Amino acid sequence: MENYFDKKYELRYFEMDRQGTISPTTILTLLEETAAEHCYDIGHSLYSLEKQGIGWVLVSGAIDMRRYPRYKENIVIRTWLSKYTMVKGYRENIIFDDSGAVIGKAQGIWVFFDIARKKPIPILDEIKAKWGVDREISQEVDVGAIKIINDGAGHQLEYDVRKSDVDSNKHVNNIRYYHWLVDSLPDGITDRYALKRVNAKFYAEAKYGEKIRIYLKHEPRQNAFMHTMRSNLDNRLLAAAHTVLEKRLCRKCAAPGSPGRMRLSSAKAAQAHPQAV
Questions:
Q1: pLDDT tens digit string along 64-104?
Q2: C-alpha 277 chain-centroid distance
Q3: Do residues 123 and 156 both lie within one domain?
Q4: CA dist., res. 6 & res. 74, Å (int)
Q5: Do 114 and 229 share a domain, yes or no?
Q6: 230 pairs with which residues across the strands?
Q7: CATH label of the domain that carries residue 39
């Protein structure tokens, strides 16, 4: 593999959930942080792009976790671009634990955007040249798994869009949508089950002062949920997702180095721990 970027993180106490493992929303945040670092690394930080009135918008993404790491573990997130269209970049991610084992994979489609005109624009040639491309993909994503709920929802939640939810353009960052979708899972479920997969699409932006509603429908046979997010203002579709859960492992089984987990070859394990990230 070539043209990749690695970022190492030591996991902190406030990033843990009630079970003492890193929360799904923290994983999503670290994936966004790694993408931002990759931008900074080539001299096109998100802030410098914003000054030019341009930036990146996440339009869809999927994550598949094999194990959630625990407090004080070190992880490495490897990211690269597997494909470009004129306006889209396909970002791949692999998450390694400290032993070099693969514990998660993620893929996101990002659109290069004119902030004022709210329209996609061609990706700068300099960005594509500096990032390069590697055709390897992190995972196959089933986009057909995402379905819009129009009726029969068994659970509903409402959120007010607060100042802390919006960026400098006064609209909600799509990663925040991910947070709300994950948080919409019932407590009784998340106490006994861990989030295995998330597959989401984003359709429209929410703004400060709006109230949003999340519709939730359980699929018991698949141990999955369908989520649909709409604005209470005009009922417009904001986002939709499909999530799959699995029973939580005991703490001993979930520990680093426990048997039965897929491991990297020694050569790939060494690549996961560069001298500097």
A1: 999 999 999 999 999 999 999 999 999 999 999 999 999 99
A2: 20
A3: no
A4: 13
A5: no
A6: 213, 237
A7: 3.10.129.10
Please indicate, yes or no, whether residues 40 and 101 belong to a single structural domain of this protein: yes
Task: Take residue 4 and report the two structure tokens written for it.
Answer: 């990749």
Q: Please tell me the distance from the alpha carbon of residue 229 to that of residue 240, in angstroms, as a whole number.
A: 6
Each residue's pLDDT tens digit, 263-277: 443 334 444 444 332
Q: Are 47 and 39 in contact (CB under 8 A)?
A: no
Question: What pLDDT digit, counting tens, does each position of 153-203 carry?
Answer: 667 889 999 988 887 667 788 788 888 888 888 877 878 889 999 999 999
Q: Which stretches of the chain are assigned E, i.e. beta strand? A: 5-10, 54-65, 74-84, 88-96, 102-114, 119-120, 155-160, 193-202, 211-219, 224-231, 237-247
> CB under 8 Å, gap of 24 or more: what pairs does 262-271 form?
262/66, 262/101, 262/102, 263/99, 263/100, 263/101, 263/102, 264/96, 264/100, 264/101, 264/102, 266/100, 268/100, 269/96, 269/99, 269/100, 269/101, 270/100, 271/1
Are 256 and 98 spatial neighbours (Cβ–Cβ below 8 Å)?
yes
pLDDT at 254: 52
Nearest to 140 by CA among 106, 110, 174, 109: 106
| Whole-prediction pTM | 0.86
